[in-house]
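Researcher: I'd like a structural prediction for the single chain below. Treat it as a standalone chain; there are no partners to consider.
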Amino acid sequence: MDVVIGIGNELRGDDGVGAQAVARLSKRDDLRTMSVHQLVPELAEAIHGVDRVLFVDARLGSAASGGRDRGETIALDRVEPGSHHGLGHACSPGALLGWTKLAFGEAPEAWLLSIPGTAFEVGESISPQTAALLPEAVDRIESWLRDETQT
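Model: Treating it as a single chain, here is the predicted structure.
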């Protein structure tokens, strides 16, 4: 089973693009989806024992400029278990994998699909530039689900 997790707050403009992308995925029996405001160590139980996990999140970028370098395009990157130390509640995808490995002895294969955004203010709706990237983001997720991963 695969898990796709949309990360972000839909009340903060482009930060909610991960949740919006996940909501557009086609339903299937071998897929579990969820949307969260932030990753927390407690999610280790939800990703333990799955085959793969894909995190979908916004990142600071300049989608408005129309350029095509990495900072302005959707990126798909492999994520490895990272440091799980510290007392903070929120964590990165790598830290969540680290918590999962610590708690259960292993972590699933993981990837991060990051979507550039420019508007992260409270109360803002998703920017037109980031909204224009949603169809491509959904296509990239669907390709990943078909195991067509390309970095």
